[in-house]
Amino acid sequence: MQAIAIQAYGAPEMLQLTTCPDPVAGSGEVLIRVAASGINRPDVLQRKGHYPVPPGASELPGLEVAGEIVAGDAEAMAAAGLQLGDKVCALVAGGGYAELCVAPAAQCLPVPAGLDMVQAASLPETFFTVWSNVFDRAQLQPGETLLVQGGSSGIGVTAIQMAKALGARVIVTAGSDDKCEACVKLGADHAINYKTHDFVEEAKRLTDGKGVDVVLDMVAGDYIAREVECLADDGRIVIIAIQGGTKSGFNAGQVLRRRLTITGSTLRPRPVAFKAAIARALREKVWPLVESGAIAPVIYRTFPAAQAAEAHALMESNQHIGKIVLTW
Questions:
Q1: By C-alpha distance, which of 66, 4, 3, 64 is closest to 38?
Q2: I need a labelling partner for 40 at 20 to 30 A (CA). Which of 28, 54, 208, 326 fits?
Q3: For the stretch 13-36, what's the b/e string if a residue is b when 16 or more beta carbons lie within 10 angstroms of its beta carbon?
Q4: 33: closest CA among 99, 95, 96, 93?
Q5: Buried/exposed 254-287: b ≥16 CB within 10 Å, e otherwise
Q6: Which of 127, 143, 145 shows the shortest CA–CA distance to 267?
Q7: 57: β partners
Q8: 119-170 confidence digits (pLDDT tens)
């Protein structure tokens, strides 16, 4: 099969189209003939040597795919309600930038009715991540306010739509007025240009001084102290990336007095059973919203797989709004 491999850690040009042996599905797995592969920020980190591959996972980059099941463990497929020939999208621990990809059957979801393969490939990584962190870990409830840092990112556009569809109020930050406008069009109640406004002051103003209930944070670093300041009592910060660094100083007295929670997680190394539970929740609670149009994929641009380097360069430019997808 053809695949995109990391020739050496470094710049986008380190991604090269190559030929690899076809993977073989093992126990509990299916083999997918890939039509499209989603690109995510962790892929960039892996290319740079900053995101180790979990034991047993493919060394090829790529965490989400959409395509057709062409082989697999019959018992596992039956348990997941799948069969040969089904069109699915899947979350994988690696190997997504390839014509063929192995995925745990339990981490596959049917392509939602009305979506094409490119749209379907844009779903798994951000949908699994947002559900696991915003709804499972941070327990966002209807009527609460969510602050999303980086609202125009792939994670951001998913969080906006999912939170709104499930009854929350959404405030986002973004780095330009155009990105802020795009976030509002996607359903955000308010968007803050963090380059021209203080998001702490704005979050407090927009909540009449109460503060936000949940912060979805992809920055960490010195943002944590500021996010503590704009949390409501019993508020929760959930960290899913550390683009601003690993060191954070914050007012621990506020955490104590106002019963605040600072938590976080990374999805890739979690066991299949953990991800399977997320897949079941998405299929039950979110997939109907996708099929109804209440939540829609946001595709910024597609690239032929051979142009993976150009796709990574675009992601690193931070010019995009939504997802970037490779096609095979």
A1: 64
A2: 28
A3: ebbeeeebeebebeebbbbbebbb
A4: 99
A5: bbeeeebebeeeebbebebeebbebbebbeeebb
A6: 127
A7: none
A8: 999 999 999 999 999 999 999 999 999 999 999 999 999 999 999 999 999 9
